[in-house]
Amino acid sequence: MQTVLLAASELAVGHCINISDIEQPCCRLIAVITKVAGDEILCKYLSDDSQLDRFTKRGVWTSRKYATPIGHFGVDVHYEPERGEFFCDQVRESTVTYPDGKPRRWQDFTVSCGRKARPKVLKFALKAAPVVA
Hints:
By secondary structure, this protein is mainly β. It has two helices and ten strands. It has one domain (4-132). Helices cover 12% and strands 31% of the residues. It is globular, with a radius of gyration of 14 Å.
């Protein structure tokens, strides 16, 4: 089965991020950057979880100083087109810290969870996807 490794290394359109240091870094809460305006970032949740609908409809604005690329947690995000799902796998140690310097770890306690992707949000991620594996 072909998978696409989604971009998750920088604060740029199409990259997967965690919105802030108070949001749990997990597969369900991965957001994709849809617009960058100076220090502000507009993003939408990738997961097709109905609890996130109201945030995804308009998008969520965050600041560059609060957002963290998912790759910095040591996590790769893969999309499987045939299933319409994305998966998160921690393959490296997290390098993320809280403002006080304490380590900030990936908190997905399921192994390689699969989640349905929102097609409109996925389009942004696929445009920035660096690798087809």
